[in-house]
Design brief:
heterodimer; A: 115 residues; mainly beta; 6-stranded mixed β-sheet; 12 strands; B: 111 residues; 0% helix; 59% strand
Chain lengths: 115, 111
């Protein structure tokens, strides 16, 4: 079974600074996908960024980027120039063929951006 | 563009009462659909997924059931709610590139 671990329950960062959220996963699959989702206080789950395991290049979406280390099974999210609106729960998620492509979520990291 | 709707947004039901939560997707055909539950302060737990009309897979044994009567409609039901069924229920559809997009969710409180 695939497991996703987020070891930082809570983090805080000052506005305009950079923060990195950690995620590790365990799988025996070779082809899979990794995601970061954001859940603000409204509780709407919003897809932030996506990484295919077969791609060596790290994904980037504006201020959000990942550091994907396949051998180490690590998938961290870097948020640059943090904004107050980035305050939210962040979930790392894994999907692969063995799970029927259902998402396996970590327990989340609560990020607080302070002025 | 694709949109996903869920209703109701909030529901308070007594123990032992029935439940019906509805999810509909617009702008896509024959998507894979998913029901997740999120307990307070925790991650998401997959409940059911469906790859087509009438095709339901259950991930967790419980008193909940799901049905997919139409291509873009996914329903979560229960005949008798338990206190432990309280939570935030999210429906999602999956794109061709395995990204899942979530609806706004239903907050269920069983009293």
């Amino acid at each position: 079974a695939q497991t996703v671990t987020q070891s930082q329950p809570e983090m805080s960062v000052q506005e305009a600074e950079t923060v990195t959220l950690s995620c590790t996963y365990d799988t025996s699959e070779n082809n899979y996908y990794l995601f970061w989702y954001k859940q603000p206080p409204s509780r709407q789950m919003i897809l932030v960024i996506r990484q295919e395991a077969y791609k060596q290049q790290n994904a980037t979406e504006n201020r959000f980027s990942v550091n994907f280390q396949k051998a180490a099974k690590s998938f961290s999210l870097k948020i640059s120039d943090s904004q107050l609106g980035d305050t939210a729960m962040y979930f790392c998620a894994f999907t692969g063929s063995n799970s029927g492509y259902a998402l396996n979520f970590g327990k989340g990291t609560s990020l607080l951006v302070t002025p | 563009s694709q949109t996903i709707h869920q209703w109701p947004a909030t529901l308070v039901q007594p123990v032992g009462s029935p439940l019906s939560l509805e999810c509909t997707v617009e702008g896509t055909s024959n998507p894979n659909l998913y029901w997740y539950r999120q307990a307070a302060g925790r991650g998401l737990q997959l409940l059911f997924y469906s790859v087509g009309i009438g095709q339901i897979s259950s991930e967790v044994p419980q008193n909940l059931s799901a049905s997919r009567p139409q291509d873009r409609q996914f329903i979560l039901s229960s005949k008798k709610l338990l206190l432990s069924d309280s939570g935030f229920y999210l429906c999602a559809w999956e794109s061709s590139s395995y990204e899942q997009y979530f609806g706004p969710g239903t907050r269920l409180t069983v009293t």
